[in-house]
């Protein structure tokens, strides 16, 4: 039986019931819904809107309903539409008319708003924890590979030699900012909408500050219409998920490339790989590819909610029933992707010799050769041209820069002397970097030391 049936002279059709119902997906909010209802019942009793005895009975019965749901003893129905009306129907069935008093001074509009905010507060904390585990894994790997030399790339072309630790710490910074973004998002999510009513507040003498304290919200939303009408906090959450997934996808793309025979920089563990149904030799990086693919899915969640909200007049509209699926999907996808990626990262094998061998070729010491001539007093642009001609000469001869004879060096510039060979060795190129945040061994150790120093920082 519909709790809003009084206005209607005709029952909804079964097809309309099915189309209108959200219980199929919003039932996962049962904990948050009961949590909000318990706080609301306590407030009603405290304010004398219902008796203390009635409030206590409601709170006690809601606790029992929660336990029964946890134990799998409750079956939700499409007829009751959503999680709010399902729980209220069960409550009323158990304690009669007293259960009907729970919804006093409340609307499903502020009820669902508080449910989603409670849910996202929990999800954000979980995501922050999993991101911290990933950051710890990156730090661990970086500490193991401070001396591991590899090619650095721009345009996917070998550019300058770097260390694997330096490369990993670049991702460490990206995921650190992701964690900060979720922390910022939590601040805007941690605001109470309950007590707003349908859109205009209520005539009852409620206590929203009490509700905020009971439910652990740091602030009360000051405008009731805004409290029920907007989902910007949910959009922000999915945006944070999308950015974090983008960073995961970029890293996965590199792991996929690095695990190919053409690169052969890493080998992904068998436990995170799959084979081919037809080609016996294949070992596919499917977990990394799935994360890369699921990134598009989370982007879709973001576009979905943005589009749902873009044309809505004030205040609540039924369109907002569709807000939960993209929120749930983005949260679930990000959490699963972060967890599997961290496990995959910690079990992969790094082929350090292949990385260093690749760094020795490809003329990645060309910039350092140009800097060598700059140190002799030549303008950088002239040095750039000289070294460019040298690289072309070496390509045509099929040799590396450091394989040129001194006579050949001097044919390009009389400023070259024997110390050029040490200057353009791969490890010398890395060691020579002086700027803060560079790939030099000392700089990478300093970056790791700063991470250790900041571990006490709360986000």
Automatic annotation (TrEMBL):
Chief place where the protein resides: cytoplasm
Keyword rRNA-binding part of the UniProt annotation = no
Superkingdom, natural source: Bacteria
Task: Give the pathway annotation.
Answer: Amino-acid biosynthesis; L-arginine biosynthesis; L-arginine from L-ornithine and carbamoyl phosphate: step 3/3
Its top-level enzyme class, in one word, is lyase
Domain Fumarate lyase N-terminal: residue ranges: 6-300
Question: What GO terms are given for molecular function?
Answer: argininosuccinate lyase activity
Give the record's GO CC terms.
cytosol
The UniProt keywords, alphabetically, are: Amino-acid biosynthesis, Arginine biosynthesis, Cytoplasm, Lyase
**What's the Enzyme Commission number for this chain?**
4.3.2.1
Give the subcellular location: Cytoplasm
Q: Residue ranges of the Argininosuccinate lyase C-terminal domain?
A: 363-431
Q: Which gene name does the record give?
A: argH
Please report which protein family the annotation says this sequence is part of.
Belongs to the lyase 1 family. Argininosuccinate lyase subfamily.
Keyword Cytoplasm in annotation: yes
Biological processes per GO annotation: L-arginine biosynthetic process via ornithine
Instruction: Give the Pfam families listed for this entry.
Output: ASL_C2 (PF14698), Lyase_1 (PF00206)
Kindly state which reaction or reactions the protein catalyses.
2-(N(omega)-L-arginino)succinate = fumarate + L-arginine
Q: What is the designated name of this protein? A: Argininosuccinate lyase
